[in-house]
Amino acid sequence: MTEPGTSSTKLPAPVGPISYTCPGELYSIPRSIHLARIAAFYSKCRDCPHRFDQGSTVPPPSQNLSSPAAEVRRPVVRTSLLTDESVRGVYLNELTRNRAIAWGEALAAMLWDDKPLIALPPDDGRSSVASDPQIPIGKPATRGPQVVVGFDERPSSPDIVTGVVLGLRRMGCPVIDLGQTGLTVLSFHLQQSGARAGLFVTGAGCDIAMTGFELLDQGGMPFSQSDLVRMESIVNTGIGRQTRQIGGHTPVHPHALYEASLTEHFHALRPLRVAFGTSSRQTQRTVKQIFTRLPCELTPIPLPTRKRDLLNPLDPDLQRIAKGVVDGRHHLGVVVDEDGQHCAFFTDQGRLVTVKEIARLLVEITQRDHLSAQFIMATSLISDARVWLTGRDATAVDGGESNSSLLRSLVDRQAAAAFSGDGRVWFRHEYVACDALIVLANILKALSLSDTPFSEVIDRISTAEGKSP
C-alpha cells in the first residue's frame, strides 16, 4: 500500500553527489546550479551534452528509449572539428589536452612524410651539416621537422598548447615556442625562421567556450581543406612514433623584431586621431608602441573576447566604436579582431566602410608605388575590381574564395596584394603578411595625401563604383 498523495512509482535514489563542468570552464558545479542554468537559458548550455537534463523527472522503465521522441532529445555530437580552413571545438567537451596531443602528433606525422628520418653522423666535432638546407649554418642539427607554436589570450589556450607541444616533441619535432602571442606574429616568425610549419592555438571567430588551431605551412599559407581532412584522419586512427628521440623545445620572444618590421609601414603621416578597438591586449600594446613615434593620436577602446561580425554595422562592438569616433571627433575608427587579420574601418561620421570600398582604396594607394601591379581578388570581388582598373595599367586576377587559393595565386603570380571576400588583405613584401596593422598603415597613408575627411574619400569611391576611373 502506498500512502495517499504519493506516487506508486518510486524514483531511484542518487548514488552519490553529481557534478558538472560547463563548456569552457575549468571548475565543476553541483547539479542544482546545473539545472538552474538550464532553466535560465545560460549561453554555455547550448553546447553542453547534458542540456536535455530534466531535473528530477526520470522516464519510467516502460518508456521506449528508441522511439522517435527519445531520438529527438538525444544530444548531437559533431563527428568533425574542421571548419573551411581551421579547427574549432568546445573546450573540454570536444577538445582537451589529451586530444590536443593527438593533433600535435598528427601534424608531426604529416611533416615526417615529407621529410623521412635520415640518420645523422655522430657528433665527433668534424661532421658538417651545412649541406642540409633545413639546418641553418652555425646551429645544431635537428632530426625532425621544426614547428613554430603559439597561443592566444583565451583561458583555455595554455592547456591546449601544452598538449600540442607534447605531441610534437613526442614525435621528434623540435618546437619553437613563441608563448602567448598573435597569429600575425607567428606567421612573421614562421617565415623568418624557415621552420616547416606553424600551429597557433586559438578560438578566434567563435565564442569564448571555443578553442582550436590555425595551421600554416612553411610559406605562411594556411593548410588546405584536404590537408586538414588528412590530419583529422590521423588523429582519429592514431599513429606510431617516428623516432625515439624527443624533439627540442626553444622558447622565443619575437615581438620586438615583429614590431620593428611594422615601423617601416607607418611613415609620412599627417596628424590623425584614431579610435582603435580590439579584444587582444597584445595587439593593443603593439599599436600603442608604434603610435608613440607618430604624430597621430590613438584612443584605445578595449573590446570583450567574443564572436563579432565585422561586416554588420549593427554588431554591438562596431556600434560602440562608431559612437566613439563621432563623440571623440576622430578622423577614423578601426576594429581589429582577435586574430589580428580581420579589421573594420569607420569614417569620421561613424559609417562602416564596406569591404569593396576598402579594397578599392588600397588598390589606389598601392598603385602609386607599383603602377602596373597585379592584384588577386576573391571571386566575389573580381567583377567590381576589373571595373575599377579599367584604363589603368594594373590588372585583377580571380583567385577563388579560399584563403589557400588566394595566397597561392599571390605567390605564383608575384602580385602586389590579395583581397578576400571577408575583408582580409595579404601584402607581399619581404614576406607574405595578412596583418590588420599593415592595412591600417596604408589607410593612414591614403588619408595623409590630402586634408580630405575620410567620409569624403569614401563617398568619392562609392560614387565612382560602376564607372571607369
Quick recap:
This protein is α/β, with parallel strands linked by helices and 469 residues long.
Could you explain the architecture of this structure?
With 469 residues, this protein is an alpha/beta fold. It folds into three domains: 19-55, no CATH class; 87-116 and 143-252, Alpha-D-Glucose-1,6-Bisphosphate, Chain A, domain 3; 258-464, Alpha-D-Glucose-1,6-Bisphosphate, subunit A, domain 3 (Alpha-D-Glucose-1,6-Bisphosphate, Chain A, domain 3, 3-Layer(aba) Sandwich), CATH 3.40.120. It has 14 helices and 17 strands. It has helices at residues 31-39, 68-73, 97-114, 157-170, 183-193, 225-237, 255-263, 281-291, 316-327, 355-367, 379-388, 403-412, 436-447, 454-464, and strands at 19-20, 29-30, 87-90, 147-151, 175-180, 197-201, 210-217, 249-251, 273-278, 297-302, 332-336, 343-346, 374-377, 395-398, 417-419, 425-428, 432-433. The strands form four sheets. Strands 3-7-6-4-5-8 form a six-stranded mixed beta sheet, sandwiched between helices. The protein has a five-stranded mixed beta sheet with strand order 14-13-15-16-17, with helices on both faces. Strand 13 (374-377), helix 11 (379-388) and strand 14 form a beta-alpha-beta unit. Helix 10 crosses helix 13. The protein is globular and about 60 Å long.
